[in-house]
Design goal:
Elements (H helix, E strand, L loop, with lengths): L2 H6 L3 E5 L5 E8 L7 E5 L2 E6 L5 H10 L1 H17 L10 E4 L4 E9 L5 E6 L2 E6 L4 H30 L7 E5 L6 E3 L4 E5 L7 H13 L8 H10 L3 H12 L10
Parallel strand pairs: 2-4, 6-8, 9-11
Antiparallel strand pairs: 1-2, 3-4, 5-6, 7-8, 10-11
Helix pairs in contact: 5-7
Length: 255
């Protein structure tokens, strides 16, 4: 991409869906991307652009896929009608399908300036400033990240060893809104702590997906063949992941 064109690359593309609805989709330039990609991310979309891709080419690609966006939105609406989201109620229980653990949650108000979470005898204790939904769920998200470091990351390291993956330099976790996992050119793999809410097979699909990127930093046919060799049925798991994501507790990724 020409340096000037990179500066001029818009933050988002705008289009009109077949029903006349205006839509704005954010744009992201990815050094490891080999082709233009339009992704469904959460309840939105994202255009991923490789380096040296002209603005006009990227915008044409986006406009040509407006019908796909419309179909995806329709599928989401249908699914949500069948599985309506839960209202914003302070959670009373936390079930982690990955570990099979179910934690009741107790709230202990205290005259302090912080909100914290601790695990005592298989019960999550949220203490401190617990007056609002945001205070409680912010603290629970931070605990989830810490718990993923203790449970998810060791499991991922075992997978790396069992499959003889090389090139992994660092493994970490967070609560990214847009991705279930990432792999950098330097071998840094980041896994989303929300994977703890998914079944172990589905979580392992994401882990293996990212580890395959250690040698294939793309989504080429060669990448999918490699992933399929270590996780048969990978593309089916990818579709299952999209549906499972819609059933996550609403407090995991706040609006």
């Amino acid at each position: 991409m020409d340096p000037l064109e990179k500066i001029l690359m818009p933050d988002a593309f705008h289009g009109t869906l077949p029903d006349g609805t205006e839509i704005t989709v954010p744009v992201r330039i990815s050094p490891r991307c080999k082709r233009l990609i339009l992704r469904s991310v959460g309840d939105g979309f994202e255009v991923v652009i490789p380096p040296r891709c002209p603005i006009s080419t990227a915008n044409t690609f986006f406009q040509e896929h407006l019908n796909w966006i419309a179909r995806t939105i329709t599928k989401r609406k249908t699914f949500l009608q069948q599985h309506p989201p839960k209202p914003e109620i302070i959670p009373q229980e936390l079930f982690l399908a990955f570990t099979g653990e179910r934690f009741p949650i107790l709230y202990e108000p205290a005259e302090v300036c912080w909100t914290g979470v601790r695990l005592e005898e298989n019960t999550l204790i949220v203490s401190g400033r617990v007056e609002t939904y945001k205070q409680c769920t912010d603290a629970l998200r931070q605990w989830l990240i810490r718990y993923a470091e203790k449970t998810l990351l060791p499991h991922a390291l075992n997978i790396a060893e069992n499959h003889n993956f090389s090139g992994l330099t660092k493994l970490r976790t967070g609560l990214q809104k847009c991705t279930w996992g990432t792999c950098s050119r330097k071998g840094v793999v980041t896994l989303n702590a929300a994977l703890l809410f998914f079944t172990k097979p589905l979580t392992e699909y994401v882990i293996l997906h990212e580890f395959c990127h250690l040698t294939e930093l793309n989504h080429s046919a060669r990448f999918w063949a490699k992933l399929e060799s270590v996780y048969p049925g990978a593309k089916e798991a990818r579709e299952s992941l999209k549906q499972a994501a819609l059933l996550l507790p609403c407090w995991i990724f706040p609006k």
